[in-house]
Amino acid sequence: MLGHLAKRLAYYLVMLVAAVFLAYLLAATTLSPRAHFQERQPRPPAEQVDKQLAALGLDDRVPVLSRFGDWAAGAVRGDLGKSISGTSVSAEFGRRIGVSLRLLVIGTVLGTTVGVAAGAWSAVRQYQISDRILTLGSFLLLSMPTFLVAVLLKTGALALNDITGTQVIAFTGEVSPGVSGGLTELRDRLVHLMLPTCSIALFGIASYSRYQRSTMLDVLGSPYLRTAAAKGLRRRTVVWRHGLRVALIPMATFFSFGFLGLLTGATFTEKIFGWHGMGEWFIDSINNNDVHAVVAVNVFAAVTVLAAGFCSDLLLVALDPRVRGAGAGGRRRRAGLG
After folding, report:
1. Between 48 and which of 44, 81, 259, 294 could a Cys-Cys bridge form, CB atoms 3.0 to 4.6 Å apart?
2. To 10 degrees, what angle do helices 64-76 and 291-319 make?
3. CATH no. for residue 145?
4. pTM of the model
């Protein structure tokens, strides 16, 4: 088991290096920091632009592989270079990473747990009215892009606030101006967190519930569940303790792929709700031709997606005894015992 996880971790590290290199290559060849400086009014002299680009490590006269080597050497030490404005990318990265992770972690946990529970519950009640309502709601959410769901939630909050005459739900920023300290700030942050978290979680609930329903239906018709029921086990025990455990195995793999969709949705969510996280930074950095900032956001995306993949491997090991036994079986075969 440990050998299997070690191999997967080594594979993910190789993938991370490849993803970072490709992100730098694309950013350095498609964005134009020189144009950012040349478009200023009054237009600066070419010598001054060259000097600024060289100081930032963005001189396009230097081969892109050399620039990547210099940037990677600094990144290993924790220095992600300088932004187009001359500030530290690492400092901005550290400030924004907590904002994005707050949304992603809570939204992912809610979307996964509620989606899996809803899918399994829907499968047990196949073709009943509750199953049809969940199916209709899931397809409606899946047919809408994430930014539209966010806009609808924001519109609904505005309407509710107008009806009540007070700001029941806050929908802009992380915290209200002037609020700081103690339980008051905590409550205010939770209120601001509500809508953007729901925007991310709803997409996860819709997608995970559909896949979980399908895998659960396959398991419910399997012979071993009928055998367990014939031995006298209660239906609840048969379905939830034995059936759901097997139905979760394909979901562990789907989780690593579905996380990328949640990460993409978080980009639009942050922009719509005024959260100054990685998604907003990514969009602004592209508009400003800020190569190092764009690469930093891609590093964050690569690390989180690959971390989700590794978590899905851990779940697979925990759920599937065949994976746990693969390492022991291999050792027995090498020893000539099996």
Report:
1. 44
2. 60
3. 1.10.3720.10
4. 0.81
> Are 268 and 298 contained in the same domain?
no
Q: Are residues 129 and 238 in the same domain?
A: yes
262, 279, 296 - which closes a domain: 279
Query: What is the DSSP secondary structure assignment for residue 237, as one 8-state letter?
Result: I
Same domain, 80 and 125: no
Same domain, 70 and 97: no
Tally of structural domains, the chain? 2
Containing structural domain, residue 220: 92-279
Can you give the pLDDT of all 338 residues of the chain as single tens digits? 677 778 888 888 999 999 999 999 999 999 989 888 888 878 888 888 889 899 999 888 899 999 999 999 999 999 999 999 889 999 999 989 988 888 888 888 899 899 999 999 999 888 899 999 999 999 999 898 888 888 898 888 888 888 888 777 777 788 887 777 778 888 888 888 888 999 889 988 998 999 999 989 888 878 877 787 787 778 777 887 778 888 888 887 777 777 777 777 788 888 888 888 898 899 899 999 999 999 999 999 899 888 888 888 888 877 777 766 655 444 444 444 44
